[in-house]
User: Which sequence fits this backbone?
């Protein structure tokens, strides 16, 4: 609001956006990084993937990857297939990736198939899990061996970076990935994701590409100002840390109450294994996402804390569990 | 900012968005209108046109239409052709539209051509001109006769509605058009355009369509709150009126100084016919858009006022003209 | 060649094409069928699927379905996702299909996902297996319950219809499927596939759609004449039967020699489970497709007979197996 | 028919196709040419243009170009805009092309527009007219200066090469164009067009691209055999010459009868300017294409001769004109 009357040039060429880019380059320890701002996660995946792939290529992803399941076909809309490989609590394994790529190139029929042109991972994954630094490095090495870029979807990156159980930093990500994005929306921004190209590899005429995809924001400063703020005085990390603290509080409280967990997640998303009856009782008091049904009797539900979750929120939730378990 | 900590459901299902929709239905005198919010103009054109057309159809537009020239091919990106007909100071003529449509259907070869499936007009046009109520009604009648929807791009609608020389109101537009949008970005919003379907004709699963196009905003309230504010206490109209007042001031000042106009525009965009030398001298002091070169010696430039233009801005500009003419 | 100088109208409106359509309607016991001719299998899948789906829909297929794996992304090229469900020797199970569709509609998040808009099956499948009449009817009933069309890819249909082990006829297929195609290329045609819409459900302006997809043949008679010939004096069935006879001869010969089969296929494609050494030795004398590697030591290879396979061909192949086993 | 039982590998890797390619390289005086075969003209334009353009680029064409008007939006279907410039009896002028390209790059707003990435011309044009060698060279030089490929649509090329009034040979075309195609369908082939890349510039993985577009013919020999035949003993040129002879006969006969011509076409397409009454009378006896209506009283009709037109056909037509004029 304060800058609304200040004349600034449009489409991301304003001074706030420039400042945000500089701060991101610094925090990523990647001085050559080329930073762009888009409005939302699906839009970012669609723009980055379509711009990096050749028309005859697809993107390799875990079968549970957001691009594969929850983006209404935004990748296919641009003409590209999502090539799925097995997931393990949301993650892909380097050796399975390697085996998939090797199999493709060995297949004498591969000219009749979709070429794997990029690898997509999310960190944290859709199951709240995290790659280790060494896992990332292994995946990165395979991508390099097959000469295809590695792309990391960081919609919830702040919650991953601030987990207690991680050796992955923005610097590690910048050196392992060809491109990734730092999610703003999920850590408190009104909207906005920061795309980082790390290897002088920005697609040619990327601005025109963004415009063609209907994703170019006229008043780019709206994104620039927010990221400039998020990367001032560590705000981005403090917001992330807060969600982790609240998640740990919730997790411990639930464990004390004997609630079984479906997955051991070190971030802000927790997956509980409830009986259908428990889930039914919970639904009357709490809004949650039903994740999957592992069998006829049980339901896996997801609970997520965020930058905005208060201790009071968590305590209230635990009281509800006292009643329903 | 005030509502940021307030829990609200996402993707446009929050209470602010609901309130904005209700206000727009009222101001459009169209109780059955279905209102949606998107972030920018090109995105809106892309989403509406692609959703309303059959895959084998294209959209008819003036050769100078924004969708035809200045959207980096966003319409073609979705597989649809922009079918151009002649423009007259940015407008299309009802009789030429009729002749085009008739010609298509009479052509024995038309099954090998792109079917005209929609008509696109902008109001104000890219040349700042306005349709009259009767012109709109004529175009609307032709669309009805050929059973194709009429779509009005209102990126600058606020500046058209508040012009001194118009009998077109939101009510008139709602009754003439099958769908149109009320631009927010160009009248002071951070971002946001309001799409209005007027005839119970929202495309099926439009939310999924928007998501697929990468255009679904997670925190939809960002758009809802802005439009709720714009349509409270006539703010939208006051902002529009202000730009018109400033435009008139500028226009009169320029006319007094003998500056020739290329087009007689009743809105906030003015097109001046300068000699190349004048344009060159102006460039040193003023940022403007070069519009076209009618001949080797002359340059048409565009000057636009807005909700944010001050009287002081205009006076300063006129002083510059005192020097360069 | 005989008709080349005979003037006929183009794009499939000639008298040979008309005659072929009539014969196909008869042999399918489907007087209301609307028949179209296209040149190849991938082209047919692309045109039919894209024309039958809404833009926000995808096609459900077995994970091994031809559209999913071996068409270079031709379906995704048109903007649609292939939604895969488990395969069982190339087939899908009605109950798993039902569970998938139910799961989609029960998912509270499904508006953010690709809508299942069609079911694709191949018959024979990519593994040479066949659906039974009752399996087809069950799948058909589920499609009807969920109000989505069932599409059968009959690239190798002739070889399925003439198998000894089938109760599926063209009449059964016509009554179970909303649309299917009868493959010409794989039973001896130079090119050509016959698409059959069985329920007055031809997509609107399908000719224009085909033209837009670059698939409209100017001299449509090239396809019409071939199908007219194939459905004269049971030629289509005789060619299919011949391949089955040759396949049985080959199968029995291989079994006598103790060659293990990977799948029990009743049609013209046979899948052998060889050791890697055997496969290596075979490769020196026979051209075959390597299908998959079930483990480190073994290779599954595919051998296919056709309308053109001779008894001598089979005997020679068996002699090679005498040497390599 | 003779080769149908001969085993040959598929997808254009057979020996007939190889022989046809070699003959085309020779007749084009272009030893490095890479030749591909596709089935039809629209399919060829779609595949070549989509493969040569970057996603943010469009193709420049005359407003009357086949790709612009008569291909049901096949180019836009692949996401690319057809950027039209003025036509002059179907041709584009080098200076207008240059002015268009210069204007694009000088426009400060061009990053919000579709980049011109290729130039499309047809020869003969849709009006039967021909470029001269020097016109082709000028257009070619401009394309080179702007670093974009020149593509020539030769659907009717045989009729252009054999015109009495041309200095354009296949060698000239090969040296001026980056890619062009030699039409087979319109000179007597059942189907088939030969695409020639002249400058070691075949798009990467073009076979996969063709497959993805549904345009890969399984039995590629069907195309190879026809072109091998067409380029044996000058058959292609003799067929072309025959149509020109018949066209001249028709033209002279019509001129003797005082029939006015709309355009002076040196090839097999002739455009007559009839009164509406004459056109009406003609329609009762002759099947023709109505081309355009220059005014309320007149109709331009097209008459085309071909490889199959006989002298008797022409004489009969002239007799009809004796009656109707």
Assistant:
């Amino acid at each position: 609001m304060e800058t609304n009357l200040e004349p600034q040039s449009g489409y991301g060429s304003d001074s706030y956006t420039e400042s945000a880019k500089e701060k991101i380059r610094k925090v990523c320890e990647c001085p050559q990084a080329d930073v762009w701002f888009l409005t939302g996660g699906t839009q970012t995946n669609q723009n980055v993937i379509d711009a990096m792939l050749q028309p005859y290529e697809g993107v390799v992803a875990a079968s549970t990857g957001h691009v594969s399941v929850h983006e209404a076909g935004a990748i296919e809309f641009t003409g590209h297939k999502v090539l799925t490989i097995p997931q393990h609590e949301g993650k892909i394994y380097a050796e399975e990736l390697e085996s998939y790529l090797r199999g493709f190139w060995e297949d004498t029929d591969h000219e009749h198939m979709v070429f794997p042109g990029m690898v997509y991972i999310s960190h944290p994954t859709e199951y709240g899990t995290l790659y280790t630094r060494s896992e990332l490095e292994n995946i990165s090495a395979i991508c390099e061996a097959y000469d295809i870029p590695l792309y990391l979807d960081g919609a919830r990156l702040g919650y991953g970076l601030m987990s207690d159980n991680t050796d992955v930093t923005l610097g590690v990500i910048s050196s392992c990935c060809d491109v990734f994005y730092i999610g703003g929306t999920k850590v408190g921004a009104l909207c906005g994701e920061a795309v980082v190209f790390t290897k002088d590899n920005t697609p040619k005429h990327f601005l025109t590409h963004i415009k063609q995809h209907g994703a170019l924001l006229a008043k780019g400063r709206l994104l620039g100002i927010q990221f400039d703020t998020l990367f001032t005085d560590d705000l981005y990390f403090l917001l992330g840390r807060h969600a982790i603290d609240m998640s740990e509080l919730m997790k411990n409280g639930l464990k004390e109450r004997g609630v079984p967990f479906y997955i051991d997640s070190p971030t802000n998303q927790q997956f509980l294994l409830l009986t259908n009856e428990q889930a039914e009782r919970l639904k009357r008091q709490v809004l949650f996402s039903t994740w999957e049904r592992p069998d006829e009797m049980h339901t896996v539900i997801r609970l997520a804390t965020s930058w905005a979750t208060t201790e009071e929120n968590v305590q209230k939730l635990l009281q509800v569990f006292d009643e329903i378990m």
Residues 102 and 231 of chain D are 41 Å apart (CA to CA). Residues 235-256 of chain D form the longest helix (22 residues). The mean pLDDT of chain D is 96.
